[in-house]
Fold each of these.
Amino acid sequence: MLKLHSLRVYGLLFAALLTGCSSTPDLPAFTASGYLADRGTVRIWRKNSDHQTVHLRTVFTPFNGDAMETTDYNWQQQQLISVERHVAGAQPDDVTLRFDHQGNLNFMQRQLAGRREAVSADSIELYRFDAQRMLDQSNALLSGRVLLNQGHWLGGTQVRDCSGKVVSVGFDSSTLATLSRQQLSQSAPLMVSWLEAPEGIQLLRATSEDECSWQPQESDF
């Protein structure tokens, strides 16, 4: 995995958050974006349905190799109605929260390895806060046209994206050199995730894992 920081992407996210823009009428209903956090990469898939329902899936992959976290958030008429978080790995941790349309909690469960636990009131409020934070960041990224793409690197600027189409990506020479070094230790093509924005292209993540196999699709999202 590559830990590459981009001042362009951070600057764009900060500027977009300051504007408070959340309307992206010319973008498709199903989109993907992402950013580099302090401890790992964040990828965000989003589906808007008739401007009343929003489904957000965030995938956080730590730089230190810890288990990946996948969280699904759902809103109806701007009201958070559910949060489902899944932490994979040797110590799985699943949390499910559901709310009514007045914002009252009507179901909660935390499933750990071999046992269930209640979710504390403080944790519930933290999940609410995190849901709004991720929605705001998604709004900012999409307003700035920061879009996520993924695929298998074929060498040079060529990538076979998760739909099977071969595309040309304008990776800079430093990125290409880093990918080449990492590819030397792999028998299969590297899986790469990158961001495209008006300011340019930024590699977000590279891995030997085939992440196209679980990438969300609009038809079943």
Amino acid sequence: MPEPTPFHDRDGFIWLDGELVPWRDAKIHVLTHALHYGSAVFEGERAYAGEIFKLSEHSQRLIDSAKGLDFEVPYTVEQIDKICRDVVAANNLSDCYIRPLAWRGSEQIGVSAQATKIHLSVAAWEWGSYFPMEQRLKGIRLTMAKYRRPDPATAPSKSKAAGLYMICTIEKHRAERAGYADALMLDWRGRVAECTGANIFFVKDGVIHTPDPDCFLDGITRRTVIDLAKKRGYEVIQRAIMPEELSDFSEAFLTGTAAEVTPISEIGEHRFKPAEICETLLNDYMALVQPARKAAE
């Protein structure tokens, strides 16, 4: 299998602090505050047939996430929206992933960072399904994570902050080394929370259950899928879910910009069979995000 092209060595353009620059020239200094202290927020977005799905919601969340880390992104939602569209166009992309990033710069190093400049970049690249399609259709296998999502009294859990993903990377690696696709994380109380980069849903007797997002991101895709489910007449209950309940559910699936809607076949010792609700919501979601392609077909 060929080695993937490293992200620092690609053709194309990245928007950085007010202009499109050649991809390889989009650089920061080694003493950038965000590199040392995690003072960065980001978004993950997808474009389908050239249209970025729920773009303004992502741009607003970037701004809100930065406020949670005590800094302000120096651009409006409308400006960020335009930047994202310009980056997709400049790189001649249609179906792609978009990554806005805002961070504290290198003007000051130390815990205090009030003198730092706030930077913004937006990159975009081709990216297919987060999980291989063959694996996705039959359901992915998850293991249980050891790290837990933190108490919101100890971290800005409503921000999509770079530092909050450190334990996600550790658990994703642990899962992959053991032959799993991902890991299910509990929260600090021992309740089911989310996976390393996606929200989770369960089905029991035709009713959909999902954890209450009181200490992790209430994902944009999560909210979209809840709306789709309700339009289909499915009951959706948001509540505290304990790990000992997992054996009670018949279906399970993940949602996220990267994961889209991905059925689950296994969480540790628990088994699930993707069925009507998983298939319906997967199809409904893909029909929603790909209207241009569907119309062309």
Amino acid sequence: MKTRRHFLKTAGAFALGSMILPEFTFALAKIKNPGIQLYSVRTEMLADAKGTLKQLAALGIKQIESASSSKGNYYGLTGKEMRDTCKELGMTLRSGHVSINSKWQQTMEEAAVAGQEYLICSSMPKSGQTIDNYKRTAEIFNKSGEECRTLGLKFGYHNHDYEFDKVDGQILYDVLMDNTDPKLVHMELDLGWVVASGNDPFEYFKKYKGRFPLWHLKDMDLQKKHSTEFGKGGLDIPKLLKHQKESGLKYFFIEQEEYAKTPMESIKYDMDYLERIRI
């Protein structure tokens, strides 16, 4: 027969377990699926694309975003070769930075063969810091998004700092956001350039919730306006990663353009930093 003492002991153990359980239920998780924008290792990719990809895979990189180069969009490899090399190394060719130019149709077709999900315009197709130009650009982006969708691709745009200039009281980036179709234009937010321009990425997460499926995770020396290793600049990386849901984040890509030593040493430093973060 169970005694009152046994009942109280059992109930107490259950209550204690209930207090402890949330620690395990809500345990902080490691950062998953880190990616890289290959412009970070542009010289190395041009010299030895497959060897450089192998080094990145050894560092734990899982997602790849290519960039146009003097050897094409895949550093001398075909789209299929790039896709297959990444797959062999346990990585995914997820995205690519390109320009909307006379070779746009070819660029889209190559990306479709490469099996990537996103095609990202890396700079404004028409220069001019005016509201009208940004509205015209939004029209170009909507059309490009439609064209990409027919080939199973998602089109997007990657910002710098100049898009955050104000004209007649309006932020030009906001003009672009307000005049693009969210179903056709998927924004890649370069967080380094957002903070370097004096803006708050969290405010953009709130204002345009779910509009930023891609990030460039780039820490910035705010005085020099140069990229730097994670934790050395003005970007609150742990806080940003804890608010990825508001952004609509699917993938992020490490991007670093300046280095304390060598590109690979900086990428390793960045990966070690991410390894220590729990969200």
